[in-house]
Write a structure and sequence with these properties.
Elements: E1 4-9, E2 15-16, E3 32-37, H1 77-83, E4 92-97, H2 103-116, E5 121-125, H3 130-140, E6 148-152, H4 156-166, E7 170-174, H5 191-208, E8 211-216, H6 229-233, E9 236-241, E10 248-256, E11 264-270, E12 273-276, H7 280-284, E13 295-302, E14 305-317, E15 325-328, H8 332-346, E16 353-359, H9 371-383, E17 391-393, E18 396-397, E19 403-404, H10 409-418, E20 423-427, H11 434-438, E21 444-448, H12 451-458
Parallel strand pairs: 4-8, 4-9, 5-6, 5-7, 7-8, 13-17, 15-16, 17-20, 20-21
Antiparallel strand pairs: 1-2, 1-3, 9-10, 10-11, 11-12, 13-14, 14-16, 18-19
Helix pairs in contact: 4-5, 8-9, 9-12
């Protein structure tokens, strides 16, 4: 069939017969690019090693062997925890993050760990030569393994042939934007190429029961570069987050077909690669100032892990007619809501004040149990009274100024106790928890039902 021209949105993959200024699907402006399009020829599939025909017959669910206990453990505890206990054979994982955040470093360390454990690994680099990868590996890998294969290739068909020839247990593609399919005329990194290469590799590794790690770039807005369909093709989507000038990195799962999406992994970037942080609470509280107003410690749950974090607030008289509200690490709308509660229920005159909230260490907190900590930190800065250094606060705040119960109160209190905190303010309903009643805590639990009670205790 004669090739024809179409216009494809580079953000979501929407296709149109002519150029459009605004994409009707994702509402992005100036995102359409011209591409050549031809209907796929089914007769060419036999010559294309990527396409694998499946001849499986329907089987009963009870006759299928469970693979729950057959995960591949990377021995990187933080990575295994985010994945749900290890890598599932035949799964496809997308690892995305800002440039220089450590995506290739994490993938290389995971590949090295698996190869050292006796698994055959293939690392395919489309952006670096094998000598450049070797130079980086010499810095990260202590002992080389005979099971570690390197390949510098960008052609999808040649990559498929290498995977079939070596039959590895684990494959890394660095990165998907550098891989191209010769059957598609579009350039590398385009929507057509990314979609075709990801789909072809997914079909191939699932037929071979090989685990695949795909490294993907992100846009300036933080979204995965390429079509959104890429997130639907893969089994797991991991985001590597961190501030540019911070040594700490957070690995977060936003999609996981084989585990929870609430778990996070914390790493420290060093000269010899990524180092696992087993106790992130202690790390994030290391440089907490003593005797300063506007500082409050909260305990947020990230999956099954309680993490203590410091919330810093700065309230100062605004220099302009319209007061500023800035939030780093928490939702801006949540800050506006809690500020309104303080004004209405406590009577603090914050209408002319600039309010700045920051979560130390670059953490992003979405747990509503941090509301009470934000309230106390803001009031502490406004009144210029320091919060006791050995105090931690838990509680969700409602619009009526009430302090609502939080989940996993026992785990949160235990984590605060481990780090030496002496007192914990928590909702009155949580104090009735059987686990808190039966446990002999060294930490004093102070129950409150309203934010007024909490502020009267803290800001005496």
């Amino acid at each position: 069939m004669k090739p024809r021209t179409i216009f494809t949105c580079q953000a979501c993959g929407y296709q149109a017969p002519k150029w459009q200024g605004k994409c009707p699907d994702c509402n992005n402006w100036n995102s359409f690019a011209e591409e050549d399009y031809a209907e796929p020829n089914i007769t060419d599939r036999k010559a294309n090693p990527v396409f694998v025909a499946s001849k499986e017959e329907p089987v009963l669910l009870e006759d299928i062997e469970s693979i729950a206990d057959k995960r591949i453990v990377t021995r990187l505890t933080e990575l295994d925890g985010v994945l749900g206990g290890g890598i599932v054979p035949g799964s496809v994982t997308l690892l995305a993050g800002d440039p220089g955040i450590g995506k290739s470093t994490l993938a290389l360390q995971a590949a090295e760990s698996l190869s050292a454990n006796g698994h055959k690994v293939l690392y395919i680099s489309g952006e670096e030569s094998i000598k450049q990868v070797k130079l980086r590996a010499d810095r990260l890998i202590k002992k080389e393994s005979a099971n570690f294969y390197l390949l510098n290739q960008t052609d999808l068909n040649l990559i498929a042939e290498s995977i079939k020839k070596i039959s590895p247990v684990f494959v890394v593609i660095d990165s998907i934007q550098a891989i191209s399919n010769s059957a598609i005329s579009a350039g590398c990194g385009s929507v057509s190429q990314v979609r075709a290469c990801a789909g072809g590799l997914t079909n191939l590794v699932k037929s071979l029961n090989t685990a695949l790690f795909i490294i993907g770039h992100v846009t300036k807005e933080g979204a995965i570069a390429g079509p959104r369909v890429l997130e639907h093709i893969v089994d797991t989507v991991l985001y590597f987050e961190g501030e540019r000038y911070s040594v700490y990195r957070i690995l977060r799962a936003v999609k996981n077909r084989f585990g929870s999406t609430n778990e996070i992994g914390v790493f420290e970037m060093t000269n010899t690669g990524l180092k696992e942080v087993s106790n992130p609470s202690q790390v994030f509280l290391t440089e907490r100032p003593k005797g300063a107003s506007g500082s409050m410690v909260v305990c947020a749950m990230e999956g099954s892990r309680p993490i203590l974090a410091e919330i810093q607030a700065l309230v100062t008289r605004g220099s302009f007619g319209f007061p500023q509200r800035k939030a780093e690490g928490i939702d801006y709308n949540r800050l506006s809501l809690l500020t309104a509660v303080l004004e209405k229920r406590i009577g603090l005159n914050l209408g002319t004040e600039d309010i700045f909230i920051n979560v130390a260490g670059g953490l992003k907190l979405e747990d509503p149990a941090c509301d009470l900590g934000i309230i106390i930190a803001t009031a502490s800065s406004f009144k210029n009274k320091a919060v006791p250094f050995d105090l931690v606060a838990l509680g969700e705040v409602g619009l009526a100024g009430e302090v609502r119960s939080v989940t996993y109160a026992n785990l949160r209190v235990s984590e605060a106790e481990k780090l030496g905190f002496k007192r914990c303010i928590l909702p009155e309903s949580n104090l009735k928890d059987a686990a808190l009643k039966t446990k002999k805590n060294k930490i004093e639990c102070i129950a409150v039902s309203t934010i007024k009670e909490a502020l009267d205790i803290v800001l005496v």
